[in-house]
Design goal:
Blueprint lengths: L6 E8 L5 H9 L3 E5 L6 E9 L2 E7 L11 H13 L3 E7 L3 H14 L3 E6 L1 H6 L2 E3 L1 H8 L2 E4 L8 H12 L14 H14 L3 H4 L4 H9 L3 H10 L3 H19 L3 H20 E3 L2 H14 L5 H39 L9 H18 L2 H17 L1 H15 L7 H7 L3 H7 L6 H10 L6 H14 L2 H28 L21 H35 L10 H17 L2 H4 L7 H16 L7 H18 L4 H27 L7 H20 L1 H36 L1 H13 L6 H12 L3 H9 L9 H11 L2 H13 L4 H11 L2 H29 L1
Parallel strand pairs: 1-4, 1-5, 5-6, 6-8
Antiparallel strand pairs: 2-3, 3-4, 7-9
Helix pairs in contact: 3-12, 5-12, 7-9, 7-11, 10-11, 14-15, 14-16, 15-23, 16-23, 18-19, 19-36, 20-22, 21-22, 21-34, 21-35, 23-36, 24-30, 26-27, 27-28, 28-29, 28-30, 29-30, 31-32, 32-33, 35-37, 36-37
This protein binds guanosine-5'-diphosphate and magnesium ion.
């Protein structure tokens, strides 16, 4: 090193991505070496450059947006200036984003550092249509302002000239102070007077700067004052009083007001010295903003837009979702063809029920999620999302969050997994973590399936929509409360001020929107998909094992009993048909049918055995025709088939296209059916009457009985499985919430994915596929639970344990299992407490 007289030390500062490294390399070439800042793992680069006979030592400071104590990088940059007192601080400013970048520059000015601004990327700024009057800006800010293009080395020697000029005192600097308005200035003056009695501190810092930092609640400065001032505590409590006073005046913490004033200062400086030639776009933007971010109508407009997004998401997503569901059930069918129809193959069950069933149910949500992401991508790319964050900012600040946290929460209505991933846009770690922790309280799409099962089962029509709305509202309120709680206990600290950039509105490009949508959807598929696959398998195993090898009740004889009773009933039809009382012809036909059915159960439709059983029955019935009663019986069978077909066609048409009663379409279908029934009646009125009686009084009870037996068996198997056992074990724990072991079992399933709850309830209530016939399940639920319990179920599934995918993503995004488990335990505990209170108080009132 040359002698100290000729060596100039400069600190190179700037926002991340402002081109700092490029400038550093351009200045120093290969004369650099890398070390660490003492005690931390932040890289410290130093380099040298000779300029006009002087050696310049250049220290690359960590990239920072501000000089608070919120991040280690910011603190290092600040302490370097305070402690090492460099001759010059060169702040690399991204000229294309001037206002935001100048925030850091203003803080160096306040620190009293000799400052030179390099307006880097001035080529891009020009291309964007910003015409910057460098001299005027220099005058306004009271420091040298040099345009540079670091990638081409342009402006480097001018920059060095300015640096040597400032170092040798040739550039007369005039100090510029940001004024904070009378209220804050009064408090600053008061605090400065107190600080003046502390000579030790005054040596290194300007009193005004210390006072500002006190109002900003700067932990580093507070520590210094406590350590170095005799009257430290007195000063700190005076600062506290000032802060409280200011908070009362402004309704916001001083830190935020101070940041606002700094931006006001910057914005003023820029408005004077920067002309934007693409003025028209900004003008239009401003005009649009005067409506969209209006204090009065901004919020309602925002909610209106969100409502539209949800409507659109569901309107477009649901039909596709139906198609996907059909696809997966088709796929399950095709795959099961690989095995014999009756097969105990664990692999078949694993693939069809576990993998396709589980993954399919989640992938079916993809269309909804894609449309939601598409809408959000459009809103984001057009620039509206920045406004939404801006509008929500005030409200969100009340719970210690940022306007920007609102977007992940919004996505949370679709699914918590992508919502947690969307928190990446939050720069501040604490904000991000808080948002991640509370996002699962926002009621996601999967929970909707639970509400849609329960609400119609227990509540009258007029209550349904409001109740659904209330469930969502409870989620939002709890999320806000939880955020508030977390911010005031676990993750204490004020909201960090940051620039609410309002980019000009832009027409989103199709390409950009599609790419954004796809990126997120893909992440959802990949991250959720793998986890859900694993969990589906586990859950399948939990509900299918251990297998019950010997059943307590023997279902074989039960089924035989039912068949016997059925055939007895068939005999009673004889007189109606005019057959002899003891005639066996009809009975034989029905027996042949039963035999065929039980034979066919073993085969798939396309298999030989299936057709063979049919031929066998046809043959048997054919032989009956030879008898005298054959004609009557075959007429009976013909009319019965026609009646069954007409009824079946009517029912599937209604179910498939979800046709409501009392609609024109319904009436039309009804007419078509009745027409067919009349045709059947015209063939033979007496036989028709017998068919009616047979179908209603003999066949229907038999079918029902058979189903009941099968379902009871399935229910028993579930109860015997691990899931059922877990449910039973949990029963005493959930009893105070009004839940029994059946609900507990379904809750275990809901942990894998919320929508599994409905399927699980279907199984434990032995109504079979709940999706196929939710009314059946609703009926059973109504028989078993009160509406209070029903509400508690919804409440518990809303709040409790986020699903496994959410927890896995939380782990991934926070990098810690601790946070994921904390989220799991915390939310479950919260759910327990809230549901307990609601149930107990509710039972007292009832
Ligand atoms: P740092 O994060 O501040 O260190 O930024 P870098 O030096 O890594 O620069 C970020 C990006 O901006 C790199 O791709 C550079 O090539 C580019 N860049 C830096 N300076 C200029 C400039 O003056 N003009 C243009 N067009 N690009 C620049
Ligand atoms: Mg860099």
């Amino acid at each position: 090193m040359k002698n100290a007289q000729t060596t100039i030390t400069i600190g190179l500062a700037g926002n991340p991505n402002s081109g700092k490294t490029t400038v550093f390399n351009s200045l120093t070439g290969s004369r650099q070496h890398v070390g660490n800042y003492p005690g931390v793992t932040v890289e410290k680069k130093e380099g040298f450059r000779d300029h006009k006979g002087r050696t310049i030592r250049i220290v690359d400071l960590p990239g920072a947006y501000s000089l608070t104590t919120h991040s280690i990088e910011e603190l290092i940059a600040r302490n370097f200036v305070i402690e090492e007192k460099p001759d010059v601080v060169v702040d690399i400013v991204d000229a294309t984003n001037l206002e935001r970048n100048l925030y850091l520059a203003v803080q160096f000015m306040e620190l009293g550092a000799p400052l030179v601004l390099a307006l880097n990327m001035s080529d891009l700024a020009k291309a964007h249509g910003h015409e910057i009057n460098y001299e005027q800006l220099s005058g306004l800010l009271g420091c040298a302002v040099i345009p540079t293009v670091a990638t081409k080395g342009e402006g480097m020697s001018e920059l060095l000239d300015a640096v040597t000029g400032v170092a040798s005192g040739k550039h007369a600097l005039h100090a510029v102070t940001v004024r904070y308005g009378p209220e804050i200035e009064d408090e600053l003056a008061r605090l400065s007077r107190l600080l003046d009695e502390c000579p030790e501190l005054g040596k290194h810092h300007s009193l005004r700067w210390l006072a500002v930092k006190l109002l900003e609640n700067d932990s580093d400065v507070k520590k210094k004052i406590r350590r170095q001032c005799r009257k430290g505590e007195e000063i700190l409590s005076a600062a506290e009083r000032s802060s409280r006073h200011l908070e009362r005046v402004f309704g916001d913490v001083p830190e935020i007001i101070i940041a606002d004033r700094r931006y006001g200062f910057i914005s003023g400086a820029c408005r004077e010295s920067v002309r934007t030639t693409v003025q028209s776009r900004y003008d239009t933007s401003e005009r649009i903003d005067s409506i969209l971010t209006n204090r009065v109508i901004g919020l309602p407009l925002f909610f209106g837009l969100m409502y539209l997004v949800f409507q659109l998401t569901f309107a477009l997503g649901d039909p596709v979702m139906g198609l996907l569901e059909q696809f997966f059930s088709w796929l399950g069918g095709v795959i099961s063809l690989l095995w014999p129809r009756v097969s105990d193959s664990a692999l078949k069950s694993l693939l069809v029920d576990g993998v396709i069933g589980g993954v399919g149910s989640v992938v079916s949500f993809l269309p909804n999620i894609m449309f939601l992401f598409l809408s959000i991508a459009i809103l984001e790319d057009s620039g509206y999302m920045a406004r939404a964050a801006f509008i929500m900012d005030r409200i969100m600040h009340k719970v210690g969050l940022h306007g920007k946290s609102f977007i992940p929460m919004l996505i949370g209505f679709g699914c918590s997994v992508p919502a947690i991933m969307a928190t990446r846009t939050l720069e501040n770690k604490t904000d991000r973590l808080t948002t991640i922790l509370v996002v699962p309280l926002i009621s996601c799409g999967a929970r909707l399936t639970i509400y849609l099962l329960i609400i119609p089962a227990f509540f009258p029509l007029a209550w349904r929509a409001p109740l659904l709305w209330i469930m969502y509202l409870i989620g939002i309120l709890l999320a806000m409360l939880a955020a508030r709680l977390i911010r005031s206990t676990l993750l204490r600290g004020k909201a960090t001020p940051f620039v609410m950039e309002l980019p000009p509105y832009r027409m989103p490009t199709l390409r950009g929107v599609v790419i954004h949508m796809w990126e997120r959807a893909w992440l959802f598929l990949k991250k959720a998909g793998t986890i859900i696959l694993a969990i589906s398998i586990v859950l399948w195993a939990l509900t299918s094992y251990p297998k019950k090898t010997s059943l307590d009740v023997d279902y074989g004889p039960k089924l035989a009993d039912a068949e016997r009773e059925y055939l007895e009933g068939v005999k009673a039809v004889n007189p109606l048909l005019g057959l002899a009382d003891g005639s066996e012809t009809l009975l034989k036909a029905m027996k042949a049918e039963l035999a065929m059915a039980s034979e066919q159960e073993k085969y798939h439709k396309h298999q030989k055995g299936f057709k063979k059983a049919q031929r066998k029955k046809d043959h048997l019935i054919g032989t009956l025709n030879a008898t005298g009663e054959g004609e009557t019986v075959s007429k009976f069978l013909q009319i019965r088939d026609a009646v069954q077909k007409a009824t079946w066609q009517f029912q599937t048409a209604i179910e498939r296209s979800k046709i409501e009663e009392n609609t024109r379409q319904y009436a039309m279908l009804e007419r078509q059916r009745d027409e067919k029934l009349r045709n059947a009646e015209e063939v033979d009125a007496r036989v028709y009457a017998a068919v009616k009686k047979y179908l209603e009084e003999v066949r229907a009870p038999f079918d029902q009985e058979k189903q009941t037996i099968q379902r009871e068996r399935a229910a028993r198997e579930v109860a015997y499985s691990y899931a059922g056992r877990i449910g039973r074990t949990l029963e005493p724990v959930v009893k105070p919430l009004g839940f029994d072991w059946k609900i507990a079992t379904a809750l275990v399933g809901a942990f894998a994915a919320k929508e599994v709850f409905v399927a699980q309830m279907g199984i434990v209530f032995s109504v079979g596929e709940a999706k196929m016939n939710p009314d059946n399940l609703r009926h059973r639920l109504r028989e078993n639970y009160s509406s209070l319990v029903a509400f508690c179920i919804m409440l518990f599934t809303l709040i409790s344990m986020p699903c496994v995918a959410t927890i896995a993503v939380t782990k991934r995004e926070t990098g810690r299992w601790t946070w994921a488990l904390f989220q799991l335990a915390g939310l479950t505990a919260l759910a327990y407490v809230v549901t307990l209170l609601v149930y107990q108080i509710g039972s007292l009132l009832a």
